[in-house]
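yo

u said u wanted the structure for the complex thing, so here. seqs first:
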Amino acid sequence: MEELEYIAPGDIEKKSFEIIKKELSDMGVELPPEYEDIIIRVIHTTADFDFVKTLYFSDGVVQKARELIKEGAAIITDTKMALSGINKKKLASFNASALTFMSDEAVGEEAKARGVTRAWVSMEHAARISGKKIFAIGNAPTALFSLHEMMEKNIFSPDLVIGVPVGFVNVVQSKELFLSSGIPCIINKGRKGGSTVCAAIVNAILKGM
Amino acid sequence: MEELEYIAPGDIEKKSFEIIKKELSDMGVELPPEYEDIIIRVIHTTADFDFVKTLYFSDGVVQKARELIKEGAAIITDTKMALSGINKKKLASFNASALTFMSDEAVGEEAKARGVTRAWVSMEHAARISGKKIFAIGNAPTALFSLHEMMEKNIFSPDLVIGVPVGFVNVVQSKELFLSSGIPCIINKGRKGGSTVCAAIVNAILKGM
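structre next:
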């Protein structure tokens, strides 16, 4: 067994980030400074260096996300897990918030009646609330399809999309829809993603504010 | 773009599991029937087939976990995210529960005073509650070190450990401690893991009950 190193609690994250940076450097990877903090935090959350190759950022998206948060945006998630992982205290300091409609009884009933997912309906409900809206999707591709359908029908357009659902059924396609949509977005191309990745991206954006 | 396939909401998970099984079969991987459901659910949650190679199960651990749940065990997590992802309704049907001490004010204060992590102290607090206890650790290696220290000092011994912290600092070592501990355990060897993996393992155990 490798020897253990005592690290003070406050230094564990710092030490982790140093290790990640060193390994990236050993691999010859240079991260774009604008996205470095987000990519490293995603690797920190997953211990998976594959994300270096698949994370996509539209031009100026990080700056835009921070502007929206300063305008008091609501960050809408598609799981309670992602919601639970987001730094809501920091968000509140900008009068911004994080919420999900996934557990709403009305959402569940409507989804059942229409034969669509809760995630689909929860996006429609979220679209109706006032103010700026960032959609942080870490689980359900149908959440992204729902947003895209509202865009196509000119009913609604999200201010920014973090699209990192994970999985095997229509996940890749749901993300590809946003790559050239014109909507500011952070997308993880391919199958990987998840609620922890979603929360890590939001928290990295907040950390830099 | 690949063509989209409409899948009824209730069939998405089933379809995903079929795809995972097909790809595992194409890779020539045969999963042990006893652990198949858990391994597939972890892949479903991460889209990462690496877990096939790193998930470790002590003999009879799945059976043991189900017995403990039937005896009304408490599942202790080291994050609110993992707690949020666990099927608490199903747990409640066995008079079992899931809880975390991570956000307790007393835990935070004691951790600060002693210069250890919240996770470390939260394990000590959890050890004092009555009844059977399953520890489901998806984030903090220090949670596993805390449990191990209590075992070494003969203060406390967990009934079962799900040890899947993720990260770069002392994570691998924290897991190795449990491999030959004699404690029934499910461990993901290496750096990978996380709150979603932790919740997926608990939910797979519950699904089979």
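Chain A has eleven helices and six strands. The mean pLDDT of chain A is 95.
cya
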